[in-house]
Amino acid sequence: MSTLNITNNTITLDNKVYQVRNITSVGKYRIKPNYFFKLNFIIICVILSLVGIEWMKSNPDVKWFTFSIIFVTALGIIERFTKAKRYGITIETNAGSTKLLKSKDESLIDTIINTIAQVMNNQDKPVNYTYNISDGDIVNMNGTFENGFRIG
After folding, report:
1. Among 78, 81, 97, 119, who pairs with 92 as Cys (CB 3.0-4.6 Å)?
2. How many domains are there within the chain?
3. Within 13 A of 148's CA, how many CA atoms are on the CB side?
4. Are residues 70 and 129 in the same domain?
């Protein structure tokens, strides 16, 4: 479990500390999943399946080949639809950019980015946000501006 702590001066995640004053931009990016079945392979399998179906009409002995190709094609298509999309937060500072956090939960990423933007825009009000993150999902979140204005 990781703890993300955001205050007026710093953003801390595990053993890394970033100064809020040095942050020039914060953004969300999509992480492209690594697929076992590549898209070119799936396209070739679809073509081979169609050829195999036509070939089965004249030669019924190739059923095993055709059904095997159709099965592999189906596995590749199912993988494309079921693989979880992941998102990340990137922080750009005066020294360069760094990837802060990855998550399957896009709303978590949006919430953290909005929190960092609120902190950057309200430097004169003391603030402390804590996110306990387990496997990219938010477990516990709390945070308040000390003047009674609640965010989050």
Report:
1. 97
2. 2
3. 0
4. no
